[in-house]
Structures are given as C-alpha cells and as structure tokens.
Write a structure and sequence with these properties.
By secondary structure, the chain is mostly helical. It folds into 2 domains: 1-75; 88-167, Mannose-Binding Protein A, subunit A (Mannose-Binding Protein A, Chain A), CATH 3.10.100. Helices cover 58% and strands 8% of the residues. The protein has helices at 2-75, 78-81, 114-123, 134-143, and strands spanning 95-97, 100-102, 158-161, 164-167. It has a two-stranded antiparallel ribbon with strand order 1-2. It has a two-stranded antiparallel ribbon with strand order 3-4. Keywords: Disulfide bond, Lectin, Signal.
Length: 170
C-alpha cells in the first residue's frame, strides 16, 4: 500500500506537471496568436495608410494638373484665337507669314520709345520683329507704311550693346 501511495503520488505530480506544462504551452501559443494578429492589424493599418497617402497624392497631382491647365488657359487667350468656335493662327489684326504672326502697329503720335514698344509687344506675348532672311525683310517692307516725315517710323528687334548690334532673340 505504501508502494501504491508512492506511485499515486508520483503519478499525481506527473499529471499536475503535465497540466502546468500544457497551460504554459497554450498560454505561449495564445500570446503568439495575439502577437500575429497585432502584427497583421498593424500591417493592414499601414496598407490603409499607404492607400490613403496614394489617394491624397493622386488628388494633389490632379489638382496641380488642373491648376496648370488653368494657368495655360490664362496665358493662352483662347477667346482671342478662337472666336465663334473657329481657331485662327494669329490674333485679330495680326498677319501670318512663315508660321509667325506680325502686328504692324501704326497708331498716331505720341511715339513710343524702343523700350516702350518692346514692352508693348511683350505684353502681347510677342517681341519686336527679328529679320531672319530676305523673304521676311521683303514681307515686313511690304507691310509698313512709307512716311516722308520725322513723325512716323517703326522699331525693329535690334539693339546696340557695347557698340555691338544684336537681335533681341540672341
């Protein structure tokens, strides 16, 4: 009977030890599962954050494109070039020659200085005329009015800097 009690005692200790061991292992497994679920939730949150940031970036890009289009529209006077749903290469009163548009401004006095005339052109997204070849020179000569007094004349895009004459386009 002592032997039986001893075996029972040892068996009880082994069973209790096994139960404790199983509880520890189950607890570790539950902790591991909780850690994995937390990591998975963190990863899902990060993915959602990335998608939100991507959507924000796309929205910002679309906004920037819209602003650029608006700016281009403001710079390009569509109503001046495309009246009545038909586009023309040049503005009203300008003359097309060799894919360039020319305005022969012949308003009465007071005269504008060279600088004022250039600013006038630049305000219209143009510049004073630069003569590139004989055909262009003949075209310009044909379209300017001939005057025989000091009250009239035209400015070219030619300037003198340090005793050297240069065209405004370089």
């Amino acid at each position: 009977s002592r032997l039986f009690l001893g075996c029972l005692w040892i068996s009880s200790i082994l069973v209790a030890g096994s139960i404790v061991y199983m509880n520890v292992k189950m607890s570790e497994q539950q902790t591991e599962e909780a850690t994995l679920k937390t990591e998975e939730a963190t990863q899902e949150t990060e993915e959602a954050t990335l998608k939100t940031e991507e959507a924000t970036l796309k929205t910002e890009e679309a906004t920037q494109e819209a602003e650029e289009a608006t700016l281009k529209f403001d710079i390009f006077p569509i109503n001046d070039f495309c009246p009545a749903k038909g586009c023309k290469p040049c503005l009203h009163d300008w003359i097309l020659f060799q894919k360039k548009c020319y305005l022969f401004y012949d308003e009465p006095a007071p005269w504008k200085t060279w600088e004022q005339s250039r600013r006038f052109c630049q305000d219209r997204r143009a510049d004073l005329v630069v003569i590139n070849d004989l055909e262009e020179q003949e075209f310009v000569s044909k379209h300017v009015k001939s005057y025989f007094d000091i009250q009239w004349g035209y400015w070219l895009g030619l300037q003198q800097t340090n005793n050297t004459w240069t065209w405004v386009d370089g």
